[in-house]
């Protein structure tokens, strides 16, 4: 496993990779920051680990509001339920949000909003797997492992980027995450709701205007979320 530290406009981040795939991206000092992820930092020069270099380029483009291109390969370790939640997060585009309840309903577990919230909080790859795009039932900003101030700034950054693209007459051009060629090695929910209503408040951002959707997918899922 390889680790490296990088600087971002929102503070230092630690990246971790294993077998050529990104398995972690944490803000320094955030909740669930892995205390053991530091022993190999000096040995892992970022330019010698392709996936870490790709991740840094992706983050540089994201914070500069440039097209990010494809996500680096991901290998996220967690329970079957956690991996399903993290997969669903990847379907939330910049400029959109979901509530915990909508995510739970889309996963076929409408009564599991609290469990979804716990899984979102355990997301091991900040920013790239956009757990910051999930809000409370009334649109309020709720817990974020990296801190609510960062969550607010990430949403504001994305709002500016989407507005800039729209003003140039390119509503689809943007900094939208490039869709992976396939799912991340699991059969996630393909029915993410896209109906959103824009509001003028960054604190509430875009509140979903449609009701919860149901999902009947119940495909078996392997032990890790992986995309090549």
Strand content: 15-25%
Number of helices: 5
- Give the overall shape, derived from the CA principal axes: globular
Characterize the largest beta sheet: strand count, sense, and whether it forms a barrel. Answer: 3 strands, antiparallel
Taking pLDDT < 50 over at least 5 consecutive residues as the criterion, the unreliable ranges are 172-224
> What is the chain-wise order of helices and strands?
EEEHEHEHHEHEEE
- Range of helix content: 25-40%
Structural class: alpha+beta
Spatial sequence of strands, sheet with the most strands? 1-2-3
- The average pLDDT is 76
Number of strands: 9
Rg, Å, rounded = 17 Å
User: Termini, distance in Å?
Assistant: 17 Å
What tags apply to this protein structure?
9 strands, 228 residues, two-stranded antiparallel sheet, globular, three-stranded antiparallel sheet, single chain, alpha+beta
What does this structure look like?
The model is unreliable at 172-224 (pLDDT under 50). By secondary structure, the chain is an alpha+beta fold. It starts with a strand and ends with a strand. The protein is globular. The longest helix is centred in the C-terminal third of the chain and has 20 residues, at 148-167. Strand 2 (13-18) and strand 3 (21-27) form a beta hairpin. The protein has five helices and nine strands; from the N terminus they run E-E-E-H-E-H-E-H-H-E-H-E-E-E.
